[in-house]
Design goal:
Layout: E1 9-10, H1 11-18, H2 22-31, E2 38-40, E3 44-47, H3 49-64, H4 69-78, H5 102-125
Antiparallel strand pairs: 1-3, 2-3
Length: 126
């Protein structure tokens, strides 16, 4: 049984889906600030659809296009749009945004919803 496209993925599910070992995904979380899956009780990771897109982009950059980790980090940070984030605020996941293509609109919407949720959580903790 496969999950729907918009469903959250556990680290094991994402690992199988993309053929990336779980320890690599955890390493990428340390190396890429834009990759921030939700962590539930017991530090269980749940990857949102926008996190899955970021992982796919990182995988493509590192394993298909030959980027170094530093180069991939620079590429992802150059793709960030909008106002600068406050250093103490959680980083929103950066998604590769192309142009005005319908599938890109879905990615943009997912990123905006993620930012909205993070701001809501920050307000609740304030």
């Amino acid at each position: 049984m496969t999950k729907e496209q918009g469903a959250f993925r556990t680290i094991g599910e994402l690992s199988k889906e993309l053929s990336i070992k779980p320890h690599i995904l955890r390493y990428w979380e340390d190396q890429f600030a834009v990759l921030t899956p939700l962590k539930r009780a017991g530090s269980r990771r749940h990857y949102r659809p926008e996190d899955v897109e970021v992982v796919k982009t990182i995988n493509r950059l590192l394993n298909e296009e030959g980027y170094t980790i530093k180069g991939a980090r620079k590429f992802l940070s150059s793709r960030r749009k909008g106002p600068e984030m406050v250093e103490d605020a959680p980083q929103a996941a950066a998604l590769p945004l192309a142009g005005d293509v319908p599938e890109d609109n879905g990615l943009i919407l997912a990123e905006l919803k993620s930012i909205r949720d993070q701001l809501s959580q920050a307000l609740n903790h304030a």
